[in-house]
Design goal:
Chain lengths: 394, 394
């Protein structure tokens, strides 16, 4: 069991195959705490949401949460009342296994939109998973695999918290709506540190706004995005300000590393792209500019071609809806200034292009209109992405 | 000279090669009226705009306009003060040829961003074009060709106005920022109908909002988009309400047909897609939903694969930022209802897919929250688009 495969104390997980996926791959995961948890959640802002989002959203933030059940292979989205009943039934089935109330269980689903869940398979799957729970790295890995759709690698991050005897472990899957019909970014973060309900929700929201909300594959927001935080430490224990900050930093770090793993596993991607925007009045302004740059197919294809085509980057910033003058903006790509306070510079095209061929591209858009900044992550857009998403047939 | 290649009276055009394009293809167009024109313009909303946009924008709406000069192969964008001086100089050079004031001339440029114009070539090109003006279809076609970048066909539309003795002729090029470094949608609409300055601007804005502003290739707004309307009829002549409406309808029709030509010529595109959104409180709401659907790479790649993957369409509507409940929405693709008031329907996948293979796809998103509606046009996203935009190197 490596450092990367540790669960916080009193957490157990399982991942099994119950037949939702025709391929026979594992498709049902259970995350269970032997102690009551404070639970927080952040959910998709899409107006069309999966049934599990409706159910979990109304149950957090909360105390007394004990389990999360996740199936892959079917998103249980756009399935009207029947889907909602199925999502509630999933939590009831888990509650029966552990003698809990239904409301102590949260639920997520990821996969194809618009199909009803095979509840017979889910029912026997939950019973099977409950029998196979374990607290070691192997069981954690199994759970991380069971939530995958077209991910090629399971995504798990574990860190110890400096200063207090606690661990933060997170798993995640997907990359926005990257996959054929598989719509979802899901993540479960577990810690044995003590947190109040209000602190858990606040810390999770701040962390997600700087991590999961800063990644984009193609800008298509899923119906099912969900990040859950479970903390099973004693909520009446008080942390010093320093320890609390250390815990928050660790949770944000786990979220950031999981986010980056999603981008590195994005379908068809050949480049990992970091977009830093700084010098605007608010973090929201910076985020808007970063989003326009990250989501432009012309910026993405320039990166695919290792082309330092700065006109595409600057013009994407220009339509982001944030006011600025051209003379307010400078652009640095992989450390080379291409555009300075509104003026095109002579630079060594071949050298910048060569640096992009490493597969790592960092763009800095520097404004001089404020002190806020943000870092976002994206990938390029390749013919392989088109093939994967166009050649899929229902 | 066919109906499609007619100029309104007293308009002449020319299109020649002056060497801005290394390929030797034609790259300079002149549009001249022998009578004073009322002129209106609509320009890119990008914060980063080409120098010609700054110059033309400050000169319209206006009376007394006599000419438009356009070069392709170089956008004269992100070129600071020097670019601005060059754009003004272009209008002065045209004015010298026809004994006009510089302010009677408008200017557009399209092509690579961030390079200075070769003013020696432009100078001799303008003199050459002035000598080659003509009012027949051949000269109109030459001008339409000289504004092309990666367009594969020139785009010209001519219609007579019902009820009055007038013609409306428009030319256009490009498709948003579809081309490697060639950023621009440009259009010049000419008519010999009488229009006041205020009417010309109002009619153009309304027409553009329902036509050019309703197309998208990949959602990347260019630095140089410009649509100009020149009307050289007697502005003191008064049209009946009926005739004025007929003129407005004809101008909107010319804009719509040019917009559709741009989408049909979009790089790599294999499908022409019509997106109708209806039943929301405002036209702006409808536009926002249509834009989210049109710009989603997942919707586009589903169309590439002739896949009636309605979950992608419905979920794109869901993140458009317009409030609705799932039960408010129905979706019809090529006449088949796939999703009705929030419920997935059983439909014949193979039949819908077969209808998509014609290359024509019409999606209707019907809400029940109002009476506004809009129609937008887009294309699919293919591996050929990626190839064209990634394999280009600066």
């Amino acid at each position: 069991m490596t450092e990367n495969l540790a669960l916080p104390s009193e957490f157990e997980t399982a991942g099994i195959a119950c037949g939702v996926k025709a391929s026979g791959k594992s498709d049902l995961a259970l995350f269970v705490s032997r102690r009551d948890c404070v639970a927080a959640g952040v959910f998709t802002q899409n107006r069309v949401v999966g049934a599990p989002v409706i159910v979990s959203r109304e149950r957090v933030p909360a105390t007394g949460v004990r389990a999360v059940v996740i199936n892959s292979g079917n998103a249980n989205a756009c399935t009207c009342e029947r889907g909602l009943n199925d999502a509630r039934r999933m939590t009831a089935l888990v509650a029966e296994q552990f003698d809990l109330q239904e409301t102590q269980v949260l639920v997520c689903s990821t996969g194809v939109i618009g199909h009803f869940l095979p509840m017979d398979k889910i029912t026997s799957g939950i019973a099977q998973a409950a029998r196979q729970l374990g607290g070691d790295g192997e069981h954690l890995q199994a759970a991380a695999k069971a939530i995958m759709t077209t991910d090629t690698v399971p995504k798990v991050v574990t860190h110890r918290v400096d200063g207090i005897n606690a661990t933060v472990t997170g798993v995640a899957k997907g990359a926005a709506m990257i996959a054929p019909n598989m719509a979802t970014m899901l993540s479960v973060i577990m810690t044995d540190a003590p947190l109040t309900q209000a602190d858990a929700q606040a810390i999770l929201q701040r962390s997600v706004s700087r991590t999961f909300n800063c990644i984009s594959v193609e800008g298509h927001t899923s119906t099912s995005d969900t990040v859950l935080l479970l903390a099973n430490g004693d909520p009446s224990a008080t942390l010093s300000d320093e320890d609390r900050q250390s815990l928050e930093d660790t949770i944000e770090r786990v979220c950031r590393e999981l986010s980056q793993k999603i981008i590195r596993d994005a379908e068809g991607a050949e480049h990992f792209v970091t977009v830093k925007v700084m010098g605007l009045p608010t973090e929201e302004d910076c985020h808007q500019v970063a989003k326009a740059v990250c989501d432009s197919p012309l910026v993405k294809t320039a990166i695919t071609g290792n082309d330092p085509n700065w006109g595409r980057i600057v013009s994407a910033a220009g339509y982001a809806g944030v006011p600025f003058q051209e003379s307010d903006l400078s652009l640095i790509v992989n450390g080379v200034v291409l555009y300075e306070t509104g003026r095109p510079l002579d630079f060594d095209d071949a050298a910048v292009s060569a640096s992009m061929k490493t597969g790592e591209v960092t763009m800095e858009l520097r404004f001089r209109l404020g002190t806020a900044e943000i870092t976002c992550w994206t990938c390029d857009l390749t013919a392989e992405y088109i093939r994967l998403n166009a050649d899929y047939t229902t």
